[in-house]
Amino acid sequence: MDDDDSAQADTSQRVSSLVRARQEELSRPGTDPEQLAAQMKQVHEEFTRLRMYYQFGIDEVQTKVNILRQEFEQIHEYSPIEHVRSRLKSTESLVEKAVRTGGDMTIPAIRERVHDIAGVRITCSFVSDVYWIADMLRRQPDLEVLTTKDYIASPKPHGYRSLHLIVQVPVFLSEHTEHVPVELQLRTIAMDFWASTEHKLSYKYRRNLPAPLRAELDDAARVAADLDARMERLRSEIRPMPDPERPARS
Ligand SMILES: Nc1nc2c(ncn2[C@@H]2O[C@H](COP(=O)(O)OP(=O)(O)OP(=O)(O)O)[C@@H](O)[C@H]2O)c(=O)[nH]1
Ligand SMILES: Nc1ncnc2c1ncn2[C@@H]1O[C@H](COP(=O)(O)OP(=O)(O)OP(=O)(O)O)[C@@H](O)[C@H]1O
């Protein structure tokens, strides 16, 4: 078994033991089997509904980003958006994070403390485009920005850089409106390259990277930041930043 397999087996084991604990709790002497079955069905339904709402939240945000992207590509002949990727957190990863962060294992309590169940990642070529796109989204009246974490202005100690927004989007359902938080990660290609490599290494070494690898990554983070600064200087040759004081031409 290699490291990846054993990390996966470890998570699966933790999820199964959680389910077992829940089953044991429900099947204590005196528990009515019909009541037990009804409770298990209810848990399953709650999880299915939760995942559906968050997928709709992703769809809403992704539509907004795609509209901006197409407008730029078709009308302005320049798009600050290079790639868009979305993901709905897997049940396994959600349960693992819910356990890791501590607290009640009820759906409302998990929703309260895990804010990245729905995620959209936007990759740009240039740092100024990251902030430009974030401002465009911030100005949309139906998107409420709940939190902003600027790891570009203040990188994490190991070198991670990105702009994170938790935005809340309304999802209009048949009988009610669900306000769904979506984690938006905005970053440059260089930041994305670094983060995806660091993520793969952290996963392989279960977040305990050997010191030489950590040092190599720290250095790579500095090179990536330097590349972003150099590319930013070239950006003005491609397209000047719009003047926020001047209204756009229709
Ligand atoms: N590769 C990589 N990704 C990171 C790092 N730090 C944050 N991220 C990504 O950004 C997400 C949110 O990170 P934070 O803003 O630190 O969020 P948090 O709620 O304080 O902490 P998390 O428990 O990591 O979600 C993570 O789930 C990762 O996808 C990092 O050092 N390396
Ligand atoms: N906001 C996001 N948008 C798009 N992809 C994301 C987002 N957040 C994480 N991902 C990607 O989804 C994959 C699965 O991530 P997963 O949800 O298991 O963990 P994580 O969010 O990176 O970490 P953690 O569970 O510790 O918060 C990874 O490749 C990760 O880079």
State the gist of this model:
With 250 residues, the chain is an alpha+beta fold.
List the helices and strands and how they pair.
Blueprint: H1 3-26, H2 33-76, E1 81-88, H3 91-100, H4 107-113, E2 118-124, H5 127-138, E3 144-150, E4 163-172, E5 177-188, H6 189-204, H7 211-238
Parallel strand pairs: 2-5
Antiparallel strand pairs: 1-2, 3-4, 4-5
Helix pairs in contact: 1-3, 6-7
Bound molecules: guanosine-5'-triphosphate (GTP) and adenosine-5'-triphosphate.
Could you explain the architecture of this structure?
The chain is of the alpha+beta class and 250 residues long. It has a domain at 11-17 and 37-187: 2-Layer Sandwich (Beta Polymerase, domain 2), CATH 3.30.460.10. It has seven helices and five strands, in the order ααβααβαβββαα. It has helices at residues 3-26, 33-76, 91-100, 107-113, 127-138, 189-204, 211-238, and strands at residues 81-88, 118-124, 144-150, 163-172, 177-188. The protein has a five-stranded mixed beta sheet. Helix 1 packs across helix 3 and helix 6 (189-204) packs antiparallel against helix 7 (211-238). The chain is flat. The structure holds guanosine-5'-triphosphate (GTP) and adenosine-5'-triphosphate. The site of adenosine-5'-triphosphate has 13 residues, from strand 1, helix 3, strand 2 and strand 5.
